[in-house]
Here is the input.
Amino acid sequence: GVGLDALYTVQPTSLQALVDLQPVLHVLGGAELRLGTFGLFAEIVPSYLVGQDFADSSAYFVRLRGGVNVHF
Here is the structure.
């Protein structure tokens, strides 16, 4: 399949926050609509930056993905 990936997150608190490698805990949910050989899919991926304060909204972000699959 081929698809599109988009990321929504709050404003980072510092430039260092953009370059630090942090583990992320996420859940993936999605669906596919089959249209013969092709399938349109959408996924939502709510995530949490491990080690951040649970009350800090910048510790959470949501990724949305969508695209087309070709079934052989």
